[in-house]
Structures are given as structure tokens and as C-alpha cells.
Amino acid sequence: MKILVVYWHPEPQSFNGAMFRTACKVLANAGHEVKTSDLHEMRFDPVSSRKNFTTVKDQNYFKQQIEEMYATETNGFSEEIETEIEKIEWCDLMIWQFPLWWFGLPAVLKGWVDRVFAMGRVYGNGHYYETGVFRGKQALLSLTTGGPQEVYLQGGFNGDILGLLRPIQRGILEFVGFGVLAPQIVYGPAHMTHDEREQHLAAYSTRLLHIAHESPIDVGTY
Ligand SMILES: Cc1cc2nc3c(=O)[nH]c(=O)nc-3n(C[C@H](O)[C@H](O)[C@H](O)COP(=O)(O)OP(=O)(O)OC[C@H]3O[C@@H](n4cnc5c(N)ncnc54)[C@H](O)[C@@H]3O)c2cc1C
Known about the structure:
By secondary structure, this protein is of the alpha/beta class. It has helices spanning 15-29, 64-74, 79-90, 107-116, 161-174, 194-209, and strands at 2-7, 33-38, 93-99, 138-145, 179-180, 184-187. Strands 1, 2, 3, 4, 5 and 6 form a six-stranded parallel beta sheet that branches. α1 (15-29) packs parallel to α6 (194-209). The longest helix is centred in the last third of the chain and has 16 residues, at 194-209. Flavin-adenine dinucleotide is lined by residues 9, 11, 13-16, 18, 99-103, 144-147, 189-190, 194, 197-198, 201. Residues 9, 11, 13-16, 18, 99-103, 144-147, 189-190, 194, 197-198, 201 line the site of flavin-adenine dinucleotide (FAD).
């Protein structure tokens, strides 16, 4: 398979960094083609603006989706954005590795979505969900939390983790056509022993060896 791993954490030595490097190594050793977007290393700027484009549709009023539609027609995405879009178009499976921040994506990864998931090229013109541009591709969220698993169960004080992930899994990934695999979640790695963390890395490695045979989940309605 062709696999894109998109990763953000501000500290390369973090547990997220270990999850990212483990995934890249295991997948490459298993014979998959792997590309990465290490957004921290890339110093990816998450702020969307006219710098997304080399073209200008309306110089008096910046409306991002109008500019995206125009850039789609005229090959007008900046090199930075074009490169990221082409990686998504290339892959069969896209993995996002990130720490859960404020119940959601950390800002740099969210900004990557804001800038790269462009109307016209990635969605729109009748292409959403079942008719999405990326129909046939799969996506996997691999994330860590600060809180323990019990606070992310139904009835737990943070609520069901699948409900928290729905804006990402349904609102972003399924919206553009991806099938969503069950999320890989490590709850509270900072509160574990070193051995426990290594066991999580080993379990993730084992899962990744068989990832090509997994089917998408029902991300729920919530
Ligand atoms: C702005 C902000 C918002 C947040 N919002 C939330 C929230 O909404 N909900 C929530 O639950 N949490 C939240 N958190 C907490 C955050 O999700 C956790 O701190 C994070 O997920 C932990 O992952 P990490 O990679 O940062 O762990 P780290 O603290 O970097 O790593 C944990 C330990 O793993 C060790 N380690 C690294 N590599 C390896 C290896 N190869 N083998 C074994 N051990 C290794 C590290 O040395 C460290 O001791 C928030 C944090 C911030 C800063």
C-alpha cells in the first residue's frame, strides 16, 4: 500500500514522536511505500491566507473557497499546498499522529486541514461523503491523551471518545470520502511506566502489520 503519515508534536522525543517513527519503520519494513508530513519539522504554517495560491480570482475580497475553486481550475495552488494535496491523492491509507489538544486536533494539524483540503480539488462539485473525492482510500487517527481511558467512556466525565472524534472522523475524513479505521488511542502515556509505553508501541506495530486487511468502522451519529 501507499501510506501517508501526517504527524505533529512540538517535541520530537515525545511519545507521539515514538509512535510516528514506529509506524514509519514498521510499515516500510513490511514493504509499504511510505511518505510523511512531519509538520513540526516542516515548520508548517497553519494560518490560511492568499499564500495558499499563486492565482487571484478576486483581489478585493478574499474568500478562501472561491480562490480554491479558481486555483483548482487554473493549477493555482502554491507549491507548499500542491505538494501536500498530491501526497493525499497518492496514498491508499492516511495516518494522522497527534496528541489530543482541547478535545480536538492541535492547531498546526487543524491548520494543515484548513489549507490543504481545498474546495474543488478535495471536495465540492457534488463530491461529499459516499461520492467523495477520496472514496476508496482509508484513514486512521492515531492519538494520545492526557486523561485515562475511564474518563473517555460513555458516562465518563469527558464523554465517549468516539463522540469527541466525530468532527474529525465524520466532518473531515468521511466528508472527503475516506473510510475511517478504528482509532489507535494511547490514553495517558505520561502516566505509564516505560515498559507499559513500550507495550503500546509493540501493539501498534502488530496492528500495522495487518492494517491492509482492516475495514472501516461506523463512526457513529452522536
Ligand atoms: C494545549 C493542550 C491541550 C490538551 N488538551 C487535552 C485534552 O483535551 N484531553 C486530554 O486528555 N489531554 C489533553 N492534553 C494532554 C495531551 O493530550 C497529552 O499530554 C499528550 O497526549 C501526551 O502525549 P505526548 O506524546 O505529549 O507524551 P510525552 O509526555 O511526550 O511522553 C510520555 C512519556 O513517554 C516517553 N517516551 C518517549 N518515547 C518513548 C519510547 N520510545 N518508549 C517509551 N517511552 C517513550 C517520554 O519520554 C515521556 O516520559 C492537552 C495538552 C496540551 C498542551
